[in-house]
Specification:
By secondary structure, this protein is an alpha/beta fold. It is built from 14 helices and 24 strands. The structure holds ligand EPZ.
């Protein structure tokens, strides 16, 4: 397994081009199951998870042609409605084929994703929504077995809590249902909006895009289209934190400030200046001090849980103490013990971490546990005194394109140690 070695202490300076969003690309790829026509995606990120989704769709019958940063997906017919455990367990987002398969074929057999490092992560809201739309669903041998021989019927679905992929699954299913579906308490993440906008280009009838109430009028069929995937706000936010921590200045090309308002407000209070540029935005630490600022994660437009670990890495160097409250997942603090091994002063009490700022971190061998925790350890390594070796970087490769190349190009002393 590859590892990454970082020698900390160099301020980052330069430009980083932000790729298309992983969490938009995955549902968009699943949407290819909804039509017999071709979908062409531009600005597709080159990530392990994208490859996994292409493999999953391929075994359903989708022809996938991958180009550099682009892909054509074509599902003239669906030869298999089973999403097997050995693929689903690698990537929870595989659940996104459930809605499209039921909508297109009237049946699906999708492995339950199972838990992950972040917690149990049930999919009960996905299932309840499809049942509301008329699907009969049984759980057999760890699989979700769905059937609706006469096709889905529109329904009003009220989410008791915000679910991003739950909203996406049911929005895709509703596009081909008979009648109107209303999703109340829908997720408003920019990746959900990007999917909705692509579905409309495919002929879907969706009102309320970007709000927490979506009205979808079912249609008989969807057609193909070409779509450029929205920039990855989490990757942009990650590199913004890297600039903040190292005291350098980075321009994030292609990033959209309007998708990171809560993060930019946090950085402003920390003492980091964020300025709009022609091609994206720039991040620079003006003063020497990193002010300690509390963080509370929340569904969009609140502070994203996918940037919680990265914000915590920044706060380890704060001038005081702060609390970081994780309200979305029950176990998203696995980065804490690793940061503490680098000299951070963090104590966890349930869903809240208390971070007492320290003057400096020191390099150490650390272990990645999930996608965002692993990048947080890279950020810490960029400022730590001495060498940091991050192991299990396959987690990193799921969500970040060639992170060591991009950081090295901005002055970081970082290299990948092949296994
Ligand atoms: C999406 O996961 C993202 N993944 C996650 O990004 C992100 O952290 C998360 O949304 C929250 O923003 C993709 O988009 C592929 P949820 P998702 O359903 O949809 C509970 C990353 O690092 N819940 O919004 O799986 C759930 O347990 C990944 O890129 C139910 O109880 O998250 C969680 O506590 C990590 N029942 C909360 O809701 C359900 O049926 C939010 O989950 C569904 C969810």
């Amino acid at each position: 397994m590859d590892r990454i070695r970082i020698r900390g202490g160099t301020p980052l300076r330069g430009k980083i081009t932000i790729s298309g969003a992983k969490n938009a690309a995955l549902p968009l790829m699943a949407a290819s199951l909804l039509t017999v026509e071709k979908l062409v995606f531009q600005n597709l990120p080159q990530l392990a998870d994208i490859t996994t989704m292409a493999k999953l769709l391929g075994q359903h019958g989708t022809q996938v042609e991958m180009g550099k940063g682009a892909a054509t997906l074509h599902t003239p017919s669906i030869s298999n409605v089973t999403a097997p455990y050995d693929l689903v367990r690698k990537m929870r987002a595989s659940i996104l084929v459930l809605g499209p398969l039921v909508a297109r074929c009237g049946k699906a057999r999708v492995s339950l994703p199972g838990g992950c490092a972040l917690g149990t992560r049930p999919v009960d809201l996905h299932i309840a929504g499809l049942q509301k739309m008329g699907a009969r669903i049984d759980l057999e041998d760890g699989y979700i077995v769905a059937e609706v021989p006469r096709g889905l019927t529109g329904a009003e679905i009220v989410f008791p809590q915000v679910t991003v992929t739950g909203t996406e699954n049911l929005m895709m299913a509703a596009c081909l249902a008979k009648g109107e579906t209303v999703l109340v308490g829908a997720a408003r993440e920019p990746e959900v909006t990007d999917l909705a906008e692509c579905l409309v280009k495919m002929g879907a009838k969706i009102e309320g895009i970007g709000s927490d109430t979506l009205h979808i009028q079912g249609v008989n069929a969807l057609h193909g289209t070409t779509h450029s995937i929205v920039a990855d706000r989490i990757v942009a936010g990650t590199y913004a934190m890297a600039a903040a921590m190292t005291g350098g200045e980075l321009e994030l090309v292609g990033a959209r400030m309007e998708h990171l308002q809560a993060v930019i407000e946090f950085l402003d209070r920390v003492g980091i200046s964020v300025t709009s540029t022609k091609d994206g935005f720039s991040v620079r630490r003006a003063a020497n001090t990193i002010r300690s600022v509390d963080v509370n994660t929340a569904p969009y437009p609140g502070f994203p849980t996918d940037l919680q670990a990265q914000a915590m890495a920044l706060m380890t160097l704060g001038n005081d103490g702060c609390t970081i409250h994780e309200s979305i997942f029950e176990n998203r603090f696995m980065h804490v013990p690793e940061l503490c091994r680098m000299g951070a002063n963090i104590t966890v009490n349930g869903a809240t971490a208390f971070v007492r700022g320290v003057p400096e971190l020191h390099g150490a061998p650390v272990m990645a546990t999930d996608l965002r925790a692993s990048v947080c350890l890279v950020l810490a390594g960029l400022v730590a005194k001495g060498d940091t070796i991050v192991s299990r970087v396959y987690h990193l490769d799921r969500g970040y394109e060639r992170v060591e190349e991009k950081l090295a190009a901005c002055g970081a002393e970082i290299e990948r140690l092949a296994a």
